[in-house]
Write a structure and sequence with these properties.
35% helix, 649 residues, globular, 27 helices, 3 domains, alpha+beta, nine-stranded antiparallel sheet
């Protein structure tokens, strides 16, 4: 038996050698590349290739994850849209022409960096060398000819809809803000979270010269979020475990290998900081720290204290700090563009900031009962998880086999993640939720983690776990969970239900909060971020079931001419989920006259397919006959919050 084990361990050791050869061959090939950043080891990093032989299961699930494909070398295999002789009209300038020459991708477009001459912007053709994203969007980067400095194509590709959109439409920013060049943005910013051990290596420092005089020799150990992003540099671990007896001894003892980092074995705060290095709102403490990072990369390593080398913005704790005041002096909207007024993060991708404000994290007194990112998510698909790997990869949610039922519930609708700590609620959840068992109203996430953070054309759940209140909507402006599901109900209706069920204190409300559905308050009067969130809620199946859909089309039609590109696109997406509108063709990137024609077509369709609304017609600004109460709608629109918004997506 021991002889067999040693033989197996010897084969694994041999596998390590094979992996190292693969890495070495890749590095040599990368060194020949001059028109993009390259993958190169060093500094104790070795790349995920060296992990595969000994950790095949973990490697396989990581390989199937969207972390891996966060950044890829551009090729016909990694690009989802075809480049073979395609013309893309969805840009801010003249059409973009895509071409494929053997395995290389090219694009012809207006040069964003040379200004506009008498005949318009210069027309250039560049090789597309890198891609960001593979799940929701793909953004394409091209060779600028300035060392390894990358530029960004003027259009992005939506994966699910299989269509191109103007690049500026993918983010929420003021309509008055002119399109800007993104040249150097991947090297300076995206690399921090879209690559492993990235080193920008600018010469001169980025931003100190016009981009046409800029150069970069950017490298990364690996493109995408790879093993060493979470487990730290692996060279010592690989070298130490060439000895099969050492590996066998660690396996038998169950001891952690001190030569690498296991995030789950760290203290709770450090566990979540591994995720927080990317999923947080942070800035440099000073210009010197930024210069060092622009030269040699960020110094944080898994297991380190994150705040030792970067400033994690937390307005509830450090708004008055010297660093925050300096940031606000440079950009007065720094807090406003990332947080709600109570300090809760409002942009997606920054879940770590949400965790920091959650009572389950803040108030925990026992490490084993402290909420961490790994309480709900798993970095690798677990052995007992029966889902296809693609289902796990969508949100990397942990799999919980129910403790009280034989079936294995979907993590998206199961309460088991929460019942780890709130076990007493398992026996009779309806006594707490006041909704039927098995209904969406009895899913913990839906009430305590509503979809109130927004970014890159979608909403995700708040990661500040809390209880719904009317006060958060009145005093803060954040849509509450109840009215994000019951879109046809008023804030007063919600306040009465919460007071009846939980004894929540009443909140003073105005006449409109008593008489007009909260969703319409956000859609018609809200700022661009509130409009985007309320729009997305109309596509959520539980909300459509609870509120009906027959009244939604006129309000979505109104948003088709919203000043904000992202809001218009969201409205067009939601319209296609409504009965009778699935095949509606709307291009919200077109000029205003074309968009208004689309509005008229949507209203004509609604006149044909609409039914008289059921309950709460007045709250939905409709007459008893089911017609729009136009004067009241216009009155609401005149109250719209038109302050400029640039969410830090």
């Amino acid at each position: 038996m021991h002889r067999f084990l040693l033989a197996v361990l010897g084969l694994l050791a041999a596998g390590l050698g094979v992996a190292e050869v693969v890495t070495h061959q890749r590095t040599i090939a990368e060194d020949d590349v001059s028109n993009r950043p390259v993958q190169r080891g060093g500094g104790g990093f070795t790349s995920s290739d060296t992990c595969r032989a000994c950790h095949p299961g973990e490697y396989a699930s990581w390989h199937a994850s969207y972390h891996r494909t966060m950044t890829q070398v551009a090729s016909p295999e990694t690009a989802i849209p075809s480049f073979a002789g395609q013309t893309v009209t969805s840009t801010q300038g003249r059409p973009m022409v895509l071409r494929q020459r053997q395995s290389a991708l090219f694009a012809e477009f207006d040069d964003p960096d040379t200004g506009t001459g008498p005949a318009g912007p210069a027309r250039i053709e560049r090789q597309v060398t890198m891609i960001t994203g593979s799940h929701n969007q793909q953004v394409f980067w091209y060779d600028t000819g300035l060392g390894r400095l990358l530029g960004q194509l003027p259009a992005a590709y939506l994966v699910q809809e299989r269509r191109w959109i103007p690049r500026r439409m993918a983010v929420l920013h003021p309509p008055s803000q002119l399109p800007r060049s993104e040249s150097g943005h991947w090297n300076s910013t995206c690399i921090a979270c879209h690559a492993t051990n990235g080193k920008p290596r600018f010469d001169p420092p980025f931003g100190s010269q016009p981009v046409t005089l800029q150069s970069a020799q950017t490298t990364a150990t690996e493109f995408g979020i790879a093993c060493e992003s979470c487990h730290g540099p692996a060279e010592a671990h690989v070298r130490g475990n060439r000895n099969p007896l050492r590996r066998y001894g660690l396996h038998l003892s169950g001891a952690a290998d001190a030569l690498t980092v296991q995030p789950a074995r760290l203290p709770p705060a450090l566990t979540s900081q591994v995720c927080g290095q990317c999923h947080g709102v942070w800035e440099f403490y000073d210009a010197e720290g930024e210069r060092r990072a622009n030269a040699d990369g960020l110094p944080f390593r898994p297991g380190d204290e994150l705040a030792a080398t970067r400033f994690v913005a937390q307005p509830t704790r450090n708004a008055a700090s010297e660093t925050m005041q300096a940031l606000l002096a440079d950009d007065s909207r720094f807090i406003r563009d990332a947080f709600w007024s109570d300090g809760t993060v409002r942009v997606s991708g920054r879940e770590y900031n949400g965790l920091l404000e959650s009572p389950c994290y803040r108030l925990a007194t026992e490490p084993e009962r402290t909420l961490t990112c790994l309480s709900c998510h798993s970095l690798h698909q677990e052995a007992n998880d029966p889902r296809p790997v693609a289902a796990w990869a969508d949100d990397q949610l942990r799999w919980f086999a129910s403790a009280s039922r034989h079936e294995e519930p979907d993590p998206q609708t199961s309460n088991d993640a929460c019942l780890q700590c709130h076990e007493p609620l398992r026996a009779n959840p309806s006594a707490h939720t006041h909704h039927a068992v098995g209904s969406t109203g009895s899913v913990c996430y839906n009430c305590h983690m509503p979809y109130t953070t927004y970014g890159l054309l979608k909403t995700i759940r708040s990661h500040t776990i809390g209880s719904p209140t009317v006060q958060e909507s009145v005093g803060v402006g954040r849509p509450n969970a109840c009215n994000l599901c019951h879109l046809d109900r008023t804030l007063a209706w919600t306040g009465e239900a919460l007071a009846r069920w939980y004894g929540t204190a009443p909140v003073p409300l105005g006449d409109e909060e008593h008489t007009i559905a909260a969703s319409l308050q956000w859609l018609l009067k809200g700022d661009a971020g509130q409009r985007a969130i309320a729009t997305q809620a109309m596509a959520w199946a539980p909300a459509q079931h609870a509120s009906g859909t027959e009244w939604m089309a006129p309000y979505l039609a109104q948003l088709l001419d919203d000043p904000y590109d992202a809001v218009r696109l969201g409205a067009a997406r939601v319209l296609r989920t409504l009965p009778g509108f699935a095949t509606t063709e709307i291009d919200v990137a077109e000029a205003p006259p074309v968009r208004r024609d689309a509005q008229r077509r949507v209203m004509a369709t609604w006149d044909r397919v609409r039914q008289r609304p059921g309950r709460a017609a007045a709250e939905l600004l409709m007459t008893p006959a089911g017609e729009l109460d136009v004067p009241r709608v216009l009155s609401m629109l005149r109250q719209r919050n038109n302050r400029a918004m640039l969410l830090r997506e």
